[in-house]
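pasting for ref
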Amino acid sequence: MIRLAVAALFVTVLAGCGPVAGGSAIATGPYRLPPTTGPIALYATTIPVGRELGEVEAHAWGEDGTVENLVPVLAQKTAQIGGNAVKIESVRADFRIVDRPQVETYYYPCGWRTCASTRVYPAAEEVMVVTMRGRAYKTEAPPQ
């Protein structure tokens, strides 16, 4: 029974090792549009001409915290609130201490043979969290 519980915990830990990019979108203006399909224009230095729909955010930690992983999430969140353009306003990185379960297998003598056991304990780890924030817009001209 204990081995089954440890195996279930180990599978849960492994399942959490995939890409960890996420995000959110908040419609702040009076416009409520259906989700957009198609390309999303990306602006970094100029403000697109159109209606501002809301704020979008993408974040990831560790090795997943790259621009290549965050831009698609930002575009997806823009499309969710009906936008076809996003103006990136900030990219920020900060460091946080998180507790992660550490799984350890150890061996010990028991009678005439060697037995194995597994223990799980929390281990503090410092991770970098990268956050990209922007504003979603609906422009009249479709993105190129």
